[in-house]
Amino acid sequence: MLPARPVLILALAALLVGGSSCLMQPSVSVRITVADGSSMDVPLTEVPPPVTDGVVTIRSFQFAPWDMGKDKPKAVAFTIAMAFAAGSAPESIRVEDFTEQPILEIFTDTHARVGKDGLYAGVSKPFAPEDEHVKWIMNLDNNVRVYRFTVLLKDGTTHVLLRPIFVPAPMKDFIRSQLGIKA
After folding, report:
1. How many structural domains comprise the chain?
2. What's the predicted TM-score (pTM) here?
3. In the sheet where 119-123 sits, what is the strand order?
4. What are residue 131's DSSP bridge partners?
5. Residues 10, 18: contact at Cβ < 8 Å?
């Protein structure tokens, strides 16, 4: 049997080591400069957390290959899922690629309507892989894209949120393969 003092020290050490793993979560981010010259930190996670200002929440913003129909080349489209606080309703929603100049419009809904529980969903027009809106998928390196959401509410207020997305090189490679193109 161990003396009381070493057992107490071992127990204390186990608590410290065991508890520290809950406190020490690795976090990797990159600082980037966007189209207006401002800087922001972007977490390098494959599933970014929702972005919100308390009234407007961007739950999901993704891009994926889009089938254009038989005998037509595939394209890339963006899907949007947003939520609005109770009593808030959008008049219009505009999404732009805010990563660099020129700022490119990705999606606009001038008659935005929310569904049940204040939820909104939208899909951009499809963009050909060589289109300036998505030609970054041809780059073989990891990439960070930043999208600016400008939401005009029916009450006349405007909400602007930035949604950064980390795009790992293997994801771009997968998308290119789904589009049937080689970089």
Report:
1. 1
2. 0.81
3. 51-52, 56-66, 75-84, 119-123
4. none
5. no
- Answer yes or no: is 75 within a domain: yes
Domain CATH number, residue 70: 2.60.40
Pick the range with the lowest mean pLDDT from 16-30, 48-62, 103-117.
16-30
73: nearest Cα among 178, 183, 169: 178
Higher pLDDT, residue 170 or 13: 170
* Cα–Cα dist 99/121, whole Å: 23
If you ran DSSP here, which 8-state letter would residue 2 be given?
-
- How many Å apart are CA 160 and CA 89, to the nearest integer? 15
Nearest to 128 by CA among 168, 74, 82, 177: 74
Does residue 70 sit in helix, strand or coil?
Answer: coil
